[in-house]
Amino acid sequence: MIVVAGESLIDLVPEPGAEAARPLAPLVPRRGGGPYNTAVAVGRLGADVAFCSRISTDAFGEALLEGLRAAGVATGLVQRGPEPTTLAVASVGADGSARYGFYAQGTADRLFALPERLPEGVRAVSFGTCSLALEPGASAYEALLLREAGRGVLTLLDPNVRPGLIPDADAYRARFAGWLPYVSVLKLSEEDARWLGGSPEEWLAKGPSAVVLTRGASGLSVFTRGLDVSVPAVPVAVADTIGAGDTVNAALLHGLAGRDPDAVDSLDADGWRALLTFAAHASAVTCSRPGAEPPYAAELPQSLLPHR
Question: In a structure prediction context, what are the per-residue pLDDT tens digits for the chain, which is 308 residues long?
C-alpha cells in the first residue's frame, strides 16, 4: 500500500475562457491540494493507496471524500473535524501556470494529529505542500515522516513551496534540510529549487537516494549518486498546469512502491528513463485538462505502465 499524507482543499479556479476577458472572472470550485491530487492520481493509476489527513465535515469536505472514494483511495486514515475547508484561489497565466492565494486560518487540515500506526503492508509514504508549512499539523506530519522512515518505509517528499504561507523563509529552509536524511526520493520543481537554494548534489549528500527535478516544458531529470538522466516533456495543448507535479509524484510512487527502499539506489539509467517517461506522459494528460484531473491507467500507453 501507498499512503499519501497531507492536506486537501478546494481550488477556486477561473472559469475557462473567462480570465482573459475580465479581471473578476467567475470562479469554479475544484477538489485540490498537492497531497490530495497525488492520492487521487495514484488511485486512478490502479495502485493500492490510502489518504492520511484531516478533512472538514462541511459540504466541501464531503465532496473531497467523495472524490477520494471515486478514485479508489482508502479513507480509513482520514480524520474529521468541524472547522472549514481550506480554500485556494488560483490565477492562471497565459502559459497555463497557476498562482495561488490561500484562505487557511483555522481550517480543518491544520489540526491533523499523528496517527498511532499505519496499516500493515505500507511500502511508501508521500509528504509535501502546505501540510509541512502550517502548524500545528506540520509537526505531526514531520513526526510521521521521521517515524516511517525509521521503519524502513520508502518516503517521497515534494515541498511544492507556497511562499505566501511561509512566515519565516530561513526557518523553513532549515527545516527542509532537516527532513532530507529521512527522505528516499526528493521531487521538486525548478521554481522550488530556486526558492530553497542548493543543488541536487548538495541534497543527495544529506540523505535522499534520488532527486527528481521537473522542468515544465523542458521535461524531467533525475539525479542519483551515480546517474543523471533526463527525458523530454510530452507535447500537449496545455489547459493549465494544476496538478501536473502531483501527477509526477503519483507516477513515481506507482513505479517505486513495489521496490525495497534501498533498491532505489540500484535503479539503473534505463529503469529511471522508463519511469520518468511514464511520469511525463501522465502529467501531460493532466495539463491537457482544466484543474487537477490526472489520468486513469487506461488513458496511458500500456507499454509505459510499470509492472507491479
Answer: 999 999 999 988 877 665 544 566 788 899 999 999 999 999 999 999 999 999 999 999 999 999 999 999 999 999 999 999 999 887 766 665 667 789 999 999 999 999 999 998 999 999 999 999 999 999 999 999 999 999 999 999 999 999 988 989 999 999 999 999 999 999 999 999 999 999 999 999 999 999 999 999 999 999 999 899 999 999 999 988 889 999 999 999 999 987 776 778 879 999 999 999 999 999 999 999 988 899 999 999 877 777 65
The CA distance from 204 to 15, in Å, is 41
The bridge status of strand 124-128 relative to strand 87-92 is unpaired
Residue with cell 515544465: 216
Outline where the chain has alpha helix (H): 34-44, 59-70, 137-150, 169-179, 190-196, 200-205, 244-256, 269-287
> What is the rounded CA–CA span in Å between residue 150 and residue 163?
29
- State the cell numbers at 209: 537516494
Instruction: Provide the Cα torsion 40, 68, 109, 36; round to 10°.
Output: 10
User: At CB < 8 A and 24+ separation, what contacts does 12-19 make?
Assistant: 12/87, 12/88, 12/89, 12/90, 13/90, 13/92, 13/98, 13/240, 13/242, 13/290, 13/291, 14/90, 14/91, 14/92, 16/239, 16/290, 19/91, 19/92
Place of cell 517517461: 277
Sign of CA dihedral 196, 108, 91, 30: positive
